[in-house]
Amino acid sequence: MDTNRCILIGAPVQAGTRRLGCDMGPSAYRAAGLGPALIGLGLSVEDRGNLAPAPMPEMPHPNPVVVGLAEVAGWTAALAQAAYDASAHGVPIFLGGDHSLSAGTVSGMSRRAADEGRPLFVLWLDAHPDLHTLDTTTSGNLHGVPMAYATGAPGFAGYLPPLAAPVDPRCVCMIGLRSVDPAERVGLREAGIVVHDMRAIDENGIGILLSAFLDRVAAAGGLLHVSLDVDFLEPGIAPGVGTTVPGGATFREAHLAMEMLHDSGLVRSLDLVELNPFLDERGRTALLMTDLAASLMGRRVLDRPTRSY
Fold first, then answer.
1. pTM of the predicted model as reported, rounded to 2 decimal places
2. 126: containing domain
3. Which of 231, 253, 259, 271 is catalytic?
4. Residues 23, 98, 126, 291: which is the catalytic one?
5. What residues are paired with 10 via a beta bridge?
């Protein structure tokens, strides 16, 4: 596996949300210059184009509000296979698409980690935990279920593809939460997921919180998957998302997190999700997300010189 090789995979998924526009996300990232930005860092880039969902039969669910289940199942199968295949050759970067796509990317990467005899850790940068099950969701929007599915929560059998290797929820760290439904609060507590909401960031700083998690990943010899949702960010700097929640991460907090992730050398895959170009302002959110991805892959504002005393 070549960590200097980035494999771009478009995932024009919008079956997980009722708001149209996320399917334009992959094109927006390409238009924002993600590929050339990575090449400018000395990395090799392979763009594998956009995926399509695997065909799935319609699957009615007892929860009547659930929508798009068959299509999300098809995307989950296609993305899990794509993640597993691409991660053998480089660092896959998934260009979304709504956050339901992570049901596939995380499960595919967990299968890859299991093949290597290593645990998969997941860093979830998001305003929401996306920890609903098919039974607990009240909106029916399946961008709210991927982490429950990937960590093996009950209720998905027969609806989404079987998991080859469920993620241990204790290996998941969620940073930036500020919109959590009651059922998700219970799920977070029972699962043992590490949670750092925006108050924790305010009180401690994002660097201390992220550093502790990265130390755990390194000590366990784990693989790290990063899932970056646009709504992790303060809406004032990233308006191009249909799930804005005030009080998100600042420009510098987000870049610091990306720089620390690069320094760790632990990241094996990346999701860029929930970009809705229809809601953006002259591409500013796509450009910011592209800059953050470049920071994760090694771009620095200034290399710190060694001081002599």
1. 0.96
2. 5-296
3. 231
4. 126
5. 50, 95
